[in-house]
Amino acid sequence: xxxxxxxxxxxxxxxxxxxxxxxxxxxxxxxxxxxxxxxxxxxxxxxxxxxxxxxxxxxxxxxxxxxxxxxxxxxxxxxxxxxxxxxxxxxxxxxxxxxxxxxxxxxxxxxxxxxxxxxxxxxxxxxxxxxxxxxxxxxxxxxxxxxxxxxxxxxxxxxxxxxxxxxxxxxxxxxxxxxxxxxxxxxxxxxxxxxxxxxxxxxxxxxxxxxxxxxxxxxxxxxxxxxxx
Length: 229
Hints:
- The N and C termini lie far apart (47 Å).
- By secondary structure, this protein is α/β, with parallel strands linked by helices.
- It has a five-stranded parallel beta sheet, with helices on both faces.
- Helix content is 35%, strand content 11%.
- α1 (13-24) packs across α6.
């Protein structure tokens, strides 16, 4: 029987590359995305395209509403920070685009689905390099969640399906991530990174995520297929 992997998918570079890596190991892909009250739903359309492109067996899209709590520029009436250059991004502190507990919530849903499927791995495209300093992207968080998951589930306690949280990008720069995905045949034109795209799906080129994307493609020496406004 082919191993099953749950892959958290936002439709961005990192999660898409993580999905391609999971597929390259021969696992059946079960993609999981969320409409969580984010500023735009274009990323959901991107995640659908990515799931089809990479041959996901199932792609579930879950509705939750983190706007009830707010506290982030992605889920509240707070302007997304914009910069003229990546050098202008402040490296100290946690940016206002951090969504409180988002990865904890997403991984909890993935953990539940993995238990039902008896899947032994959940892939998440977090990275501790070229990222915005989010606390739920750090190795310490991932290790703690994995331990908790195997204490909290029937399959984990009985050892029927011990869950591994796979973070294949954790030590890669954005350029290295793009290079890895390119070698695996990822079509990055299907993805979107922007925190504040326009109604036509074009990216702003000035938010933190766009600037990291632009820098990544440039350093990788690969043409950026992103339409910017």
